[in-house]
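Tokens as discussed.
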């Protein structure tokens, strides 16, 4: 029997366009906030890194909190859509605030301004918006193939937006005259674009009624149970799901990987002597990633699941990044670009099916406990983006400070140049290897099938 479909093509495309909004925030911050703060505002990279790391202390709590709040929300718009819609207005305001740090206040006040705006953005508004956006995958369709398609389309927009921002931002800042005023103008333009795309995405889909979501999934053991639980219970459901922990760890490592690559602006400027190469490398990453995402839904069907595709893909990705390391020390930019593209192609399946993988992970909790925690389960996407991106940027700040980086200087000391090789070449390869090792154990589809067989035998 063919699985029922719930979405038209325009629903999937409309949903996916919402990641323009998320990556307006994420790509700008991860690629450029550090160099803006060090070279334009004049702040210390090590202190900025420490503030970013400190702000992450608020993120773990806020992710679980907003996930649980989404699960408990009942409104005409549904569970997730209100949080996605209203949360983004705060994202836009905080994004602009980060790039309008007043020059006339004390240095301490500048650090405080950045810390407050950055923390409000990440621990508050971005959390509400991003968890809700990710949770929609499980709330607008029950068809797993459609979920994979939604994830693939979503990340096409994500990588396309990231590529565009990394390609044009340096030029845009120069076009608007350079300096703090130019950065402020660029941030305002990006924030407005984010509000528009987020709004279109919210109204492009409609959540299924709760009774339809639960239809046909209740086992005899859990039938009739009322879906009520406290925040502490939701947290307990998460940490008892080993696949959630694996996905969460993978997502965090994926974002740390991206953050270290985004610090490539320093590598391009001081090692390759051309800041505009950041855009070229962005194309080498994002074009193969988008191509891979186009084929991910078909490959998931052909391979009858996500497990082998993700594992083999990331193995290729790790080999590709090892090639980048070798090419980097050889000084061959063309070979670096080729190996970068190979790595990106291998990594694309996990990006495309991640939301479907999380939905499958949520079903694992439901099959074991009878509790539906879709919103809380999707906290790993926001947690991973913020923790991974923040930790990656913080690590970059610490390593830059440790290496003796001099903000705005035309030349950097040899210790800094050596550190840039570590940051841009070695760290991404190591993070890819760690993710590959996790993926060897992340076969939640098989676990769910075994639980369904067991439930069927018991009944």
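Sequence:
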């Amino acid at each position: 029997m063919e699985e029922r479909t719930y979405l038209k093509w325009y629903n999937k495309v409309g949903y996916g366009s919402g990641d323009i909004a998320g990556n307006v925030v994420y790509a700008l911050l991860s690629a450029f906030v550090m160099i803006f703060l060090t070279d334009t505002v004049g702040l210390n990279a090590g202190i900025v890194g420490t503030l970013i790391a400190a702000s992450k202390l608020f993120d773990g709590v806020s992710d679980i909190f907003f996930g649980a709040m989404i699960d408990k929300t009942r409104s005409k718009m549904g569970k997730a859509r209100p949080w996605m819609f209203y949360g983004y207005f705060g994202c836009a305001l905080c994004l602009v605030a980060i790039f309008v740090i007043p020059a006339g206040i004390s240095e301490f006040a500048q650090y405080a301004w950045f810390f407050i705006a950055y923390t409000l953005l990440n621990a508050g508004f971005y959390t509400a918006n991003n968890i809700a956006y990710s949770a929609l995958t499980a709330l607008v369709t029950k068809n797993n193939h459609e979920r994979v398609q939604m994830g693939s389309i979503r990340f096409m927009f994500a990588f396309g937006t990231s590529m565009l921002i990394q390609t044009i931002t340096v030029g845009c800042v120069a076009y608007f005259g350079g300096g703090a005023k130019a950065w402020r103008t660029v941030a305002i333009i990006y924030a407005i674009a984010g509000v528009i795309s987020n709004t279109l995405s919210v109204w492009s889909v409609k959540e299924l009624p709760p009774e339809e979501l639960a239809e046909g999934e209740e086992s005899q053991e859990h039938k009739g149970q009322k879906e009520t639980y406290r925040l502490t219970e939701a947290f307990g459901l998460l940490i008892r799901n080993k696949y959630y922990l694996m996905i969460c760890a993978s997502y965090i490592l994926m974002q740390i990987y991206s953050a270290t690559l985004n610090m490539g602006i320093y590598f391009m400027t001081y090692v390759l002597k051309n800041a505009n190469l950041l855009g070229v490398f962005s194309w080498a990453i994002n074009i193969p990633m988008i191509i891979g995402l186009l084929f991910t839904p078909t490959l998931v069907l052909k391979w009858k699941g996500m497990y082998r595709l993700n594992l083999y893909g990331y193995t290729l990705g790790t080999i590709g990044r090892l090639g980048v390391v070798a090419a980097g020390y050889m000084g061959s930019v063309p070979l670096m670009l080729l190996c970068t593209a190979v790595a990106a192609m291998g990594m694309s399946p996990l990006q495309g099916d991640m939301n479907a993988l999380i939905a499958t992970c949520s079903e694992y909790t439901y099959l074991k406990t009878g509790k539906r925690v879709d919103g809380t389960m999707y906290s790993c996407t926001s947690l991973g983006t913020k923790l991974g991106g923040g930790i990656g940027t913080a690590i970059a700040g610490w390593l830059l400070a440790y290496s003796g980086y001099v903000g705005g200087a035309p030349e950097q000391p040899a210790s800094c140049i050596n550190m840039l090789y570590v940051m841009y070449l070695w760290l991404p390869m190591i993070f890819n290897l760690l993710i590959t090792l996790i993926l060897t154990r992340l076969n939640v589809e098989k676990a769910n099938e075994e639980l369904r067989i067991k439930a069927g035998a018991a009944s």
